[in-house]
């Protein structure tokens, strides 16, 4: 059984793609790194995917889906961060009411850093295939007020990234992915 965390490599035209979507790729990598460094071993596999060709029609995501869809019942949740890594506020979630209740309970663990909201509908080109087939999905929600200042511009460089905000994003990704991967049962469908 698999909990998938992901971001994609998006610097296809200008800039470095540090915010869009290097930040999403980084926090996904960091989540797994933190779990390993803490010596935690969840019941399910945590899988990191760094998608390619999202801007060219989601070619990498479609290929991955085609290669793995026969095992779709083993995918517990698919998570994608693709809206920058500014100050996070919570998760967008797609799934049934029972699964949403579980995710809301998990998000209460993040009360000490004041990131507890669960919004309707996860967004993510790379996880859409899975969600359409009934796999629960989550996307990071954060402060988008500056996102389009840098999106697909020469300004999308590492200087845009605030290490403290990225750490908060990584904390959300780490807690959610680990707890779901270590629960007794998969999320309800």
From TrEMBL:
SUPFAM superfamilies, alphabetized: Zn-dependent exopeptidases
Keyword Zinc set for record: yes
A single BP term in Gene Ontology: thyroid hormone generation
Domain (Peptidase M28): residue spans on this chain: 2-173
Subcellular location as annotated: Endoplasmic reticulum; Golgi apparatus; Lysosome; Secreted
Signal peptide positions (record): none
Coiled-coil features, chain-numbered ranges: none
A Pfam family it matches: Peptidase_M28
Keywords: Carboxypeptidase, Endoplasmic reticulum, Glycoprotein, Golgi apparatus, Hydrolase, Lysosome, Metal-binding, Metalloprotease, Protease, Secreted, Signal, Zinc, Zymogen
Family, as annotated: Belongs to the peptidase M28 family.
Subunit structure: Homodimer. The monomeric form is inactive while the homodimer is active.
Protein name: Carboxypeptidase Q
Originating organism: Pelecanoides urinatrix (Common diving petrel)
Organismal lineage: Eukaryota, Metazoa, Chordata, Craniata, Vertebrata
Encoding gene, per UniProt annotation: Cpq
